[in-house]
Input
Amino acid sequence: MTEYLEMSAAVNELLAEDEILILCHKNPDGDTIGSAGALYWALRALGKTAAVLCSDPIPQMYNYMMLETYSRQFKPKFVVAVDVASMQLFGENNDMQEFSQNVNLCIDHHGSNAAYAYGTYLDADAAACCEILTELIPMMGVTIDPHMADCLYTGIATDTGCFRFASTRAKTHAAAATLMEAGANVEELNSILFESKSRARVEVERMALESLEYYFENRCAMVCLTKEQIAASGVPAAELEDITSLPLGIEGVQVGLTLRQQPLGSYKISVRTVRGIAANEIVTCLGGGGHGRAAGCEIEGMQENVKAAILREVERALKKLDEQGGELSL
Amino acid sequence: MTEYLEMSAAVNELLAEDEILILCHKNPDGDTIGSAGALYWALRALGKTAAVLCSDPIPQMYNYMMLETYSRQFKPKFVVAVDVASMQLFGENNDMQEFSQNVNLCIDHHGSNAAYAYGTYLDADAAACCEILTELIPMMGVTIDPHMADCLYTGIATDTGCFRFASTRAKTHAAAATLMEAGANVEELNSILFESKSRARVEVERMALESLEYYFENRCAMVCLTKEQIAASGVPAAELEDITSLPLGIEGVQVGLTLRQQPLGSYKISVRTVRGIAANEIVTCLGGGGHGRAAGCEIEGMQENVKAAILREVERALKKLDEQGGELSL
Output
């Protein structure tokens, strides 16, 4: 069991320690990397030694954060995890196994946080871990400089789909305002994060749209990418995450499904739902989990069987919704 | 010549007047309509009479603003224009001609504002007219209620591409935070404004990606839609405009071309370029025109000939850029 900390207690721990290792989650996204980057530079600003460890390579697009990654010369005395909801999400590469067993402090915004660290600062209402750090870093007595602001803006912008997702709250915008005042290069960052797509990425979108199928009178839309397609495109698996918002973005669709075949053949299924349909209930029978509007599971089998299995659950959820008197207004 | 007003002077004019007509620009967007909506409800909250006039129909997607549109029973004593940069932008339908000649007050954020009103409040640094009104309405002594907040958020979100465009500043995010605190239904609005695409629209995107071709070592990307494809999709031609940003959004592409065949067979060509390549120069020889980064022309002929004609001009522009020492950094 973890001890849940106030923000000030988390700050005091960080201030008291040195030689700090910062852990990211596997398949790193802008929020875990941005959080690590901002915290790394904040600790450095206090004269401390720090390094960042992630079990997967950090995508090149985030090179501007200029992180110092862990090497074995570094002997950490304190381990902090940022944006990592559970032990499994650390992954197993590099030296992660060694350090992820004894996390001193976890800073996170996932309601599902598994309380694996000795101490945890959790704000499940925050849109991003970087939103938390926008408040926490100044409490450490560190002024957010333009570079830290870039890191923090990255996490907030990517985790909220640039302020579109339902997780965006007034405090999220207030944090963005703070970061712009601190000198975040928002125009350049938005261009890197959102505007430019690689040819590979465009190719994946083409394949995704080509595979698009509708079910249950167009109330369910499904995208399916085979492992051959994903491999042929050359897009790293981690960068396919936001394809999962495509099917639910179609007018009238209440359940959006994205099937991505994994290298060993199984299918990773992402379920996105409108309000009134519990995404996590849809995947429960298939051994998955998640949130009310976004959940996932992984199934072995032939593509047609996998599709049939998830569609059976979707049908059940749609029937349940109809029995309850239809979709709640968005 | 107009008198440029402080915000407090603009507020005093609005407070002193009654029976106020609010004018929008033609082809109304979220900012002009949102501004009109918020101002209308703020004036109503003060017990005043008001109405909104636009020379084009207000798109149904904005119905939630519940505006009272002008009818001839209403005899305005004071005319306010919101988000209208010049006289020509009023359009000519309805009774607009009558009222647009004598605008008492213009509230705008366009640096190009033509100073056509008797009094003008201009903030050319504001990302949206609604950003200005988020500050102005409370100065009128009106508390922004959730409905006004919805109107104001609409203008800010649409004019900034949901906080992506370079016009977004710290104050823009601060305004969004204020509006969320005031009860704006941001989740629902983002879904209406940005997330939902019609099936027809998704089909057009699929066809566009399917047609995607690269030229000149991938420095030019071209999308081509035939009139049969456009007709089959059922998407109104006006809603295809933003497809034109697709090719230039691909990494490394310096010239993005979008060919849309018109009902009579000719091809409308949209040219988008990176900084350093003049889009309007590319189309000049083909009888077109436009701006430095976005231009267009229309050519008759077989698809292959049309493609060859525009590609010849693109090749010339790329050569010119190379001779000048390559692309200017974005």
In short: The interface with chain A takes residues 162-166, 168-174, 176-178, 180-181, 186-188, 190-191, 194-199, 202, 205-206, 209-210, 212, 214, 218, 249-252, 330 of chain B (CB under 8 Å).
